Amino acid sequence: MKIVVIGSGTAGSNFALFMRKLDRKAEITVIGKEPTMQYSPCALPHVISGTIEKPEDVIVFPNEFYEKQKITLMLNTEAKAIDRERKVVITDKGEVPYDKLVLAVGSRAFIPPIKGVENEGVFTLKSLNDVRRIKAYIAERKPKKAVVIGAGLIGLEGAEAFAKLGMEVLVVELMERLMPTMLDRDTAKLVQEEMEKHGVSFRFGVGVSEIIGSPVRAVKIGDEEVEADLVLVATGVRANVDLAKNAGLEVNRGIVVNEHLQTSDPDIYAIGDCAEVIDAVTGERTLSQLGTTAVRMAKVAAEHIAGKDASFRPVFNTAITELFGLEIGTFGITEERAKRAGIEIVVGKFKGSTKPEYYPGGKPITVKVIFRKSDRKLVGAQIVGGERVWGRVMTLSALAQKGATVEDVVYLETAYAPPVSPTIDPISVAAEMALRRFR
């Protein structure tokens, strides 16, 4: 069987390795635009800050590792078209035949139509090449004032990196708060306050209308001109769908797939940032552009191609980050998005400590849990705290994936030791707050 993968990122690389484990004889070929296989895009801001020393350090495995697995690599190669009738991929280096084709074509940074966005000193943060360009620019021009356009995960992590390098940082966001798709106003405020303590300032409800100078020397926010000698555009990403669309596959915001990750052509699969899947709360189609999702998709697609009855579950989009030592974990629907979707919810919120009050060294933690009123099920959570957020948000996400109710979380069996956690965990206390509001 000839299996061709278009895309050498997280989804494509992991698929090739999973597929090789399941089928030792299949001919597996990976076509990728970049010169390397999988690296971690989530690590890129930490390369800029210097926490990770070199861009090359985020490459997961060298190309030779895949070649030893008898995976054929066609890197620095662009897939131009898919001929579904002949079952070939047309590239800039010739045609590649397939029996099964996997589209792992990822996403691209969205560049808004801002005057001057192409000027020198204006960057996106999506690839290793972006990081190399940013680091070279910083080394050469030693910028002192950075403006970040967009207050999502990448924008905030970029802002942190610039601040750690000693820059004065301003984040500009069109919405009224940071991380607007992941946090509600109350939890977003906690993150904002912590970042402001570290010198990052914010402007909400406005956009950058112009970037002035090349190299950049200022940005225009409304009628105000603000000094800047480096600009990061972090206004989200868009799924790469053109290849699929031109091949006649069904496409919305992403490439439409079924529960087995097959496209409208059953011999073609789509995985990773480009694939449109099902939201676990609303039941609507959504994008899940997370590295963890990409790996799970890769596994399901490989197993299904290998003949197993594997299905990809609807997503809660569980995510976590850390900014200046503050951990932020989230999944599922927010309070505000639930209202827009017409979903009645009950919310519980608790602010406490990561350790018993009598034990020194505890750090503040805020837990917000969201339950659907109709069936009492857990459908979302936001946790902001100084430590151990990861374990708590993972626990709640796992419970939600299993259909847990408010009572399940209230009476959850947890672990306790004074140096580690309180006797009643904050997630159970937050759920208790919600339980009291049910009628």
Automatic annotation (TrEMBL):
Matching InterPro entries, A to Z? FAD-bd_OxRdtase, FAD/NAD-bd_sf, FAD/NAD-binding_dom, FAD/NAD-linked_Rdtase_dimer_sf, Pyr_nucl-diS_OxRdtase_dimer
Extract one GO molecular function annotation from the record.
oxidoreductase activity
Q: Which region is the signal sequence?
A: none
**CC cofactor:** FAD
Annotated Pyridine nucleotide-disulphide oxidoreductase dimerisation domain ranges read 324-423
Annotated ranges, domain FAD/NAD(P)-binding: 1-285
Pfam family example for this protein?
Pyr_redox_2
* Alphabetic keyword roster: FAD, Flavoprotein
Q: Which Gene3D superfamilies match?
A: FAD/NAD(P)-binding domain
**Family to which the UniProt record says this protein belongs:** Belongs to the class-III pyridine nucleotide-disulfide oxidoreductase family.
What name is this protein filed under?
Answer: NADH oxidase
